[in-house]
Amino acid sequence: MRKRFSWVVANMVSLRFPQRLKLVILCLLSGVFSSIFVAMDIYYLNIVMPDPIVYGLLTEWIGLAFSFLLMIFFSIPFKEGKTIGYFLDPTFDKVKLPRGKILLYLIGAGLSASFSTFSYFILTSITDPSTILPLSKLVIVYLLVAEIFYEKDAPTYIEIISISLIIMGVFLVSFVKAGFGFMETLIILGPYNLGLTFYTYFQKLARDCREEGITNDSLNLRIWSLFFLTLFMSIFSIPLIDDTRWNLIIRYGQDTYSLIFIIIDMSFAFFAYIFYLRALGMGKMSVVNSITSISVVLGIPLTLIGNIIYPGAFGVIPTELEIWVFKTIGSILVIEGIVALSITQERSYILIKMKYPYELDIMPLLKQIKGVESVAAVAGNYDYILRVKIRSIAKVYNMLVRKIEKLPAIKEITTMKIIKEWERI
User: Is the pLDDT of residue 268 over 90?
Assistant: First the structure.
């Protein structure tokens, strides 16, 4: 019984579910953890210390130091040659210095994140952060455009409809009477969302990189992108750090309450990004960011509960009926869009028969085709079996089969759609 219980716990922690369900769970967990650390940020800035620049630097510096301690903990051997971090990401071994393309991608991710993070803290000094956060989901639109170039393929109709529902729902959830000025709008449309877009893009490149001997597990990607984020944000903040702010950094950096609060806050951020990076390795950038939009919906109960515990800590609770109608409709649209996106991807097996005699091993060529998850050389009526994941049956033919047909010595290709499947991952 004890062994069975341990097996269940291990499967739950390491998220051993069918691939499609795992993607949705990872995104939802990321959204939940994100909503919690954002709520904590809002509380701290409204109640404890209202200077967003000082708080931003403290969270990054303390968060980076604490994250390195977490990485050391996750590198401790557990059993059967596996580390504790294995249960968060099965590809994790230990902390490793990035190099090659991974290093360049992480520098790009850190630089991009520094723009969006710095912009976020600047915005919080202008207006209430709880009204700005939902607008970060404009990044979904930017990512749809980026994916056309990254994957060289347009999104399907169901993806466009689902993402449109989510974006519409997010704006309804964030409905407020007060508008934004020119400067706020410029920052939101510019460095804030563009920074998030390029951060996601570089992290996707790093996660998908398949250079031999280079690690790209989510834990290492998180710690080193956070390192470069902290480095660049500190550089950007130098002109804004006067004696008053420096004294605040020293004062609150030594304050026990602030230290514990920021460590808890950055713990939620750490796990939110780990789940997010794992999801990026499994799904499209726009889809992952759309499903994590559940954080916007969760912001409603967190705001209500937070204001009950700490009145005024999360802004003024609206009393107008129409605002709550908009928020309710928006929440429903977000959930509908997430459910629709969770069932968009199609899985198929492609069976390949070669012309005899043939000498060329085409497995390396097959592995390079986007959408191919695994390749097996087999004996019998067919020579290769491919397991593919793509957005629609039409895409299987247009993107995959046509590319395979161009390979040498191909005699026959058979596509078999997966209707129902069980897998242990």
Answer: yes
Q: What residue ranges do the domains of the chain occupy?
A: 23-341, 346-417
The region that residue 147 occupies, defined by phi over 0 for left and psi between -120 and 50 for alpha, beta otherwise, is: alpha
How many of the other CB atoms lie within 10 Å of CB of 256?
7
How far is residue 171's CA from residue 169's CA, in Å, rounded to a whole number? 5
- Model confidence over 317-327: pLDDT tens digits? 777 777 778 87
Structure tokens given for 422:
């069980």
Closest CA to 199 of 88, 99, 119: 119
Residue 297 has pLDDT above 80, yes or no: no
Distance between CA atoms of 425 and 389, rounded to whole angstroms? 15
Pair 323, 171: CB distance under 8 Å: no
Q: What is the CATH architecture assignment of 346-417?
A: 2-Layer Sandwich (3.30)
| CA distances, 268 to each of 24, 218, 263 (Å) | 19, 15, 9
In sequence order, the 6+-apart residues with CB closer than 8 A to the CB of 95 are: 68, 71, 72, 75, 220, 223
Both tokens of residue 21?
Answer: 């369900």
Q: Give the Å distances, CA to CA, from 160 to 154, 156, 341, 394.
A: 10, 6, 10, 16
What is the dihedral angle through the alpha carbons of 8, 10, 11, 16, rounded to the nearest 10 degrees? -170
Peptide bond into 134 cis (omega under 30): no
Pairing of strands 410-417, 372-377: unpaired
Q: What is residue 214's predicted lDDT score, i.e. its pLDDT?
A: 63
* 281 or 390, which is more confident: 281
% of the chain beyond a pLDDT of 70: 76
**Which tokens in the block code for residue 335?**
């959930």
Q: What are phi and psi of 409, to 5 degrees?
A: 70, 20
Instruction: Name the residue type at position 325.
Output: V
145-150 contacts at long range (C-beta below 8 A, 24 or more positions apart): 146/197, 146/201, 146/285, 147/284, 147/285, 147/286, 150/201, 150/204, 150/285
DSSP 8-state assignment for residue 187: H
**Residues 90-132 pLDDT 10s:** 888 888 888 888 899 999 999 999 988 888 777 766 655 456 6
Q: What's the mean pLDDT in 381-398? A: 69
